[in-house]
Structure formats: structure tokens, C-alpha cells
Amino acid sequence: METRSIPPDLILEILAKLPLKSVIRFRCVSKFCNSSVITPSFVKSHTTNFPIKPIGLLITCSSRLQSGQMFFYADYNGGFAVPLLTVPPRFSRYTTQSLNGLLCLDFGICVQICNPSTRQAITLPFVVPVSSPSASSTYFCVNSFGFDPVTEQYKVLNSWKVPGKEPEYRVFTLGTDESWRFVDGGPCYYPKRESICIGGIIYFRCWTNWNKSSRAVLVAFDVGKETFQVIEIPDEISSDDENLTDLIAFAGNPAIVCYDQIYDDEDSSLLIVWTVKDSIWYKNGLVMPSDLQELEDEQAQLYYVAGTIQTGELLLAPRRVSKKQHFYVLYFDVLKNVFRRVEISGLPDYVHQFNDFSCIDTVTVSNFEENILSFA
């Protein structure tokens, strides 16, 4: 009996219509499948059938003794957290929010890019050699992650300021660059370990002086044009304690959340959200329900605003995972003034031996998007 093989084009057409998890399994079937599903043309075809969009929460925390970084997926409605990926060898100084399902792990002169969907991580070339004299001063050496929707390129921006020296800014383009490139025009300020990317623009705050009590500004980096813009921050928040503010994306614009405002009613707190659009700042006061205060007292820790979810609700999460407490995330509808919480189980519950509060180090929560992009 004559047997006929399936034409390669038809195989790829079938694979492009399968969910991401199935495509990943088919990479093990043959060399053809493995090499074909990582090509730009297949990625584009699959993304057309399965557009990148938030499907749940991505939770990041450290493994035991900070020997690695763990990534979990959880449904928006809570439930058991599913392990996705563990990246050694250590916990990063700072991890960006999920950008189309990808994350940037900042180790100063070392950077890792992770795709929890494909269980992959790559380490970029060192910003400078480890033996370089400047490698000993990396406190203000910060890496931010961005995506240009026009060229569909992902880039890492390295901002580095050493007291007494001119700042240095470098860019690494994924899939194109083999080494870091210098870019000009960056401000002579000290970058903070935070960033968000909205519409092809990376936003991050900088201190105007090495002393963190100095005034802060918002820096906007155009990922496509590789140009900088400095946006002045209102005096009311420009010198706030960094632990009392967070930079988030809110209603499609960068925003700074302030936590130190107390409402007249002792049972409620006033959350101030400063939103900037076209360099103009808008102040919004949100009265948080008393349920939040009760939960914070019960958990013995404060919640921070991690961003928003696809419904437009604010996402609040604890800064640590505790063995002694349940892990809840909170959603707040700013229009209806409705507050709800969901419980997530399955996260690490061991005691961090360096912490008297029985917590492992910082946990971050953001939206999770599936992305088929592979690092080969």
C-alpha cells in the first residue's frame, strides 16, 4: 500500500491553529517541527490565530535561599497557582512587568529575558566585562524592557549613572544585536529600578541627585526612535519616599500611585493616582474600602497597586508571600467603587531563614499573556 506524507506547508497550517501548549509539545516530534515553529513567519501566523492578550495572573517569587526565580500562572478568579518556570542562578534585583508575556530580569550588568509560556530564558551579553572597573559600581545600573509595535522589536534599555561621572545609556535589540549599543541624549540622572512600557514608550523614574531624597522626574524612552524625553513630576509627589509610591499603567497612560494619604475617616484610606497625558498631570483620589484595612491588619502587611487587569480594575497584591498567611489578590473597580478579593494557593510556603517575618522575598504580580516567541 502506498503511503503519502503530509506536505510540510499543511503541517505548519495545522500547527498554527493549535493552542500554544500543543505547539510546544509538537516541537519534540521532529526536527522539522522544532525548527519551523520558531521562525518569524510561523510566529506571526500563530499570533494571528491566537492574539496575545491577558489570560490570568503571572506571579514571581524567589526559590529557596534566593537560588533562582520562580514563575507561576493563576486564574484571575484565584485557585491553585501552576508552576511555569524556574530560572537559576539567583533572584533578580528587579523584574519588569510582563510585556506581551515576556519579562526582563535585572542583575545590573547581567540581563535575562524569560518567556514562561515556552519555559525558556536567555542571558544577554554582559553590559561590560565583569573585570571592568565600572562593574564594581552598579547600584544605579538599571535595565528596562520595551516593545516597539511598529517594528515589532523587543529592546532592553540599560541606564547607568555613577556618581561623579556622565551617565551611560545602552540598548540591546533581541534577535538583532550581538552586543550592547550606546545611545545618546539620555538625562544626567540616577535611574530607579522600575519601568513600564506603553505604546512603544518605556517610562521610568530617575532621581536628580544620588541622594534618594532628591527630586524625581519621569523619563520616557521611545523604543523605536531611541530618543529620550524628561517629564517633570508635580512637586507634591516628586520627592515622596520611594516606598510610598509606585509607577503603573492606568487607563492606557503612565501613573504614579501614592499610598501615604490618609482619609478623614479612620476606617478608610485615600489612594492618590497621578496620571500623565501629553506631559500634563491629573490627580485622582480613590477612597479604598475599609475591607482593605481589615485585610492588611489581618495579614500584617501592606498591599501595593500592581497595575490593572483587562476589566480596568486595579490589581492590588501583597509584597511578600508568608507561610503564616493566605495569599490574596484584590481587585478594585474605581467606577463602581466595588472591592473583591480572591485567594491563590500553591505558592512556596517555606520560611525564609534570613527573615524574622517568615516570608520569602518580594513577590510581584502582573498580567500573564501567552506568547509563542521562542529563543530557539
UniProtKB/TrEMBL annotation:
It comes from the Eukaryota. Residues 6-46 form the F-box domain. Pfam families: F-box, FBA_3. Signal peptide: none annotated. PANTHER family: BNAA05G37150D PROTEIN-RELATED (PTHR31111), F-BOX PROTEIN CPR30-LIKE (PTHR31111:SF125). This is F-box domain-containing protein.
